Amino acid sequence: MDLGELLLISGAEVMRVEDTIIRLCMVYGFTKVEVFTIISSIVLTVQNGEGDTLTQTRRIYARDTNLGRVEQVNALSRHICANPVSLKTFQQEIKRIRDQKAYSSVSKCLMYAVVSAAFSLFFGGNFVDSITAALSGILMFEMFCLCQHLYINGALKNLLVSILTALAVLGMVNLGLGEHPDKIIIGNIMLLIPGLALTTSLKDMLHGDTLSGLLGLYEAVLKALIVAMGFAVVIILAGK
């Protein structure tokens, strides 16, 4: 259940979560395993050799994208399936993966700047636009960090960050830093589009996990609409 939770909160598809749990349960001696997973919950029922049935439910409250963690969990599950370890060792490995930090705040901030600048150039902006996009990308990252400290929920956080970023871009363009606000904003929007979540939900539906796929698709589309609405409101009110 702990490994399944790590996979689900890190952006793995439902098929991978259920397959990992089933394989590990079979390795450790359960004779029957039933798993039901959606993007917000895991329900596991197992039966041992004596016929006893156990059920556990794990509620998932927050999810993010961390493909490095997904890869580590996959590697650990494959290793355990080939060479089962003690419960203590198993728990230590889970804790190691859970506590491991993927990137520092400085690295994430630089990634926001580079990705914003690159997409601004890709969609037709000039060099000055890319510099402005990089600066607004850094501002976007800092606003995300502030929203997390204030415990603002995901939908409202995306809306506020979109509005404030659009205002910052228009302000910098008015000051002469940047020439095409639309090209700059496109670079910033690409950081907020839930592309992986959308792809994962479609994958789930193609695999037959229709309910989880539809929930993921709905969430991804809703996030995209909120982001678009935040930028659009500012652009329309500013007459750009």
UniProtKB/TrEMBL annotation:
UniProtKB keywords: Cell membrane, Membrane, Transmembrane, Transmembrane helix
Localisation: Cell membrane
Transmembrane segments: 159-178, 184-202, 214-238
Domain spans labelled Threonine/serine exporter-like N-terminal: 1-236
InterPro entries for the chain: ThrE-like_N (IPR010619), ThrE_Dicarb/AminoAcid_Exp (IPR050539)
Tree of life domain: Bacteria
Membrane association type: Multi-pass membrane protein
UniProt family annotation: Belongs to the ThrE exporter (TC 2.A.79) family.
The protein, known as: Threonine/serine exporter family protein
Organism in which the protein naturally occurs: Ruthenibacterium intestinale
